[in-house]
């Protein structure tokens, strides 16, 4: 269990949403093992694991994933985040995922909404929140932080915003928020938004429906965690090829462009991972060939063409080099079991 802590004052703000709906907070505190007096001292701190339980208990009590902070016009029912995640998981890159995320929450009639656009400064993800919203700064900072963590999870890399704009004063901001994000934060601005570099927005999503299913089992804990999200270059490249390559694997220059690297840099970094683009392509072809050969739908010659081989004999040699057996021997053994 994580021993990282968060300020009690920040945790106490979580309860303002339920209180606005006249819900008793005693059961919420009881559910996560926090005593009321633990939150009364602004100098005290609680474990992040307890904070996570506090948020989950508050969501259950309010039946609102936004904990009442999105206004009185409606609730974001539990399960909405899961549906949004499924809506974005097959997007080819982060910018499209951000756009689809904004579109999803725009379906709700809430006091908080989002918008997405790109300009010369970078890719902007903007938040709108009614002025009369309770604990406005807390709701804004929580939305910004969780959005950044979710976007980082999608691409398997810690996204550091180019800058964050907030339309309120620094005195209203939480010290925890300022410490969580190593990025310039500008206060008293005309809007609330995070700006990320275009090269980060173009990163391919490395997560899949399979990894999403596992993530959703403990998503809040993962989003609050400070664990590194860096994903291997091999996984990033496989994601690009699988989502964009079709039957023709993209060339090395295209991959470099998608990852915003020079050819020399990518070759050097792949060497550090003890691999190469040729090896990655071979592994992709091998895995795809194994999948096709395990079914009787396509002939071996058709599979060879699908894998990008102009001649079946070349496919036979490559497959035997990959697996130690011929395609026909593999198919016969697999289909007979």
Structure description:
This protein is α+β, with helices and mostly antiparallel strands and 337 residues long. The protein is built from 19 helices and 7 strands. The chain folds into 3 domains: 1-62, no CATH class; 69-230, no CATH class; 233-335, Homeodomain-like (Arc Repressor Mutant, subunit A, Orthogonal Bundle). It has helices at 8-13, 16-20, 26-32, 36-40, 48-62, 80-88, 94-105, 136-155, 175-180, 198-201, 209-215, 219-224, 233-245, 252-258, 263-272, 277-293, 300-306, 312-323, 327-335, and strands at residues 5-7, 45-47, 112-119, 122-129, 163-165, 185-186, 192-196. The strands form 2 sheets. A 5-stranded mixed β-sheet has the order 3-4-7-5-6. It has a two-stranded antiparallel ribbon with strand order 1-2. Helix 9 (175-180) links the parallel strand 5 and strand 6. The radius of gyration is 24 Å and the shape is elongated.
Question: Span from first to last CA?
Answer: 44 Å
Overall pLDDT: 80
E-strand count:
7
H/E topology pattern: EHHHHEHHHEEHEHEEHHHHHHHHHH
Query: How many helices?
Result: 19
Concise description?
It is built from 19 helices and 7 strands. It has 337 residues and is of the alpha+beta class.
Topology:
Layout: E1 5-7, H1 8-13, H2 16-20, H3 26-32, H4 36-40, E2 45-47, H5 48-62, H6 80-88, H7 94-105, E3 112-119, E4 122-129, H8 136-155, E5 163-165, H9 175-180, E6 185-186, E7 192-196, H10 198-201, H11 209-215, H12 219-224, H13 233-245, H14 252-258, H15 263-272, H16 277-293, H17 300-306, H18 312-323, H19 327-335
Parallel strand pairs: 5-6
Antiparallel strand pairs: 1-2, 3-4, 4-7, 5-7
């Amino acid at each position: 269990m994580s021993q990282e802590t968060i300020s009690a004052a920040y945790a106490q703000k979580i309860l303002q949403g339920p209180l606005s709906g006249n819900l008793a907070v005693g059961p919420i505190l009881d559910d996560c093992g926090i005593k009321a007096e633990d939150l009364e001292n602004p100098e005290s701190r609680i474990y992040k694991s307890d904070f996570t339980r506090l948020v989950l208990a508050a969501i259950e009590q309010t039946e609102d994933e936004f904990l009442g902070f999105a206004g009185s016009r409606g609730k974001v029912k539990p399960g909405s985040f899961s549906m949004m995640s499924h809506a974005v998981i097959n997007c080819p890159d982060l910018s499209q995922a951000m756009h689809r995320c904004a579109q999803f929450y725009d379906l709700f009639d809430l006091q908080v909404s989002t918008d997405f656009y790109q300009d010369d400064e970078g890719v902007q993800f903007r938040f709108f929140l009614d002025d009369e919203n309770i604990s406005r700064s807390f709701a804004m900072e929580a939305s910004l932080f969780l959005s950044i963590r979710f976007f980082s999870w999608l691409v398997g890399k810690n996204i550091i915003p180019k800058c964050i704009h907030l339309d309120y004063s620094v005195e209203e901001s939480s010290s925890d928020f300022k410490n969580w994000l190593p990025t310039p934060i500008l206060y008293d601005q005309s809007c609330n938004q995070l700006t990320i570099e275009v090269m980060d927005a173009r990163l391919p999503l490395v997560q899949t429906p399979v990894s999403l299913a596992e993530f959703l089992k403990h998503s809040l804990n993962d989003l609050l965690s400070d664990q590194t999200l860096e994903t291997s270059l091999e996984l990033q490249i496989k994601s690009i090829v699988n989502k964009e390559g079709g039957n023709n694997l993209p060339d090395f220059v295209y991959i470099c462009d998608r990852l915003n690297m020079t050819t020399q840099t990518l070759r050097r970094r792949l060497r550090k991972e003890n691999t190469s683009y040729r090896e990655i392509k071979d592994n992709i072809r091998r895995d795809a060939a194994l999948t096709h050969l395990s079914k009787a739908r396509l002939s071996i010659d058709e599979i060879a063409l699908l894998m990008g081989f102009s001649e079946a004999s070349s496919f036979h040699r490559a497959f035997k080099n990959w697996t130690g057996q011929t395609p026909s021997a593999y198919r016969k053994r697999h289909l007979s079991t």
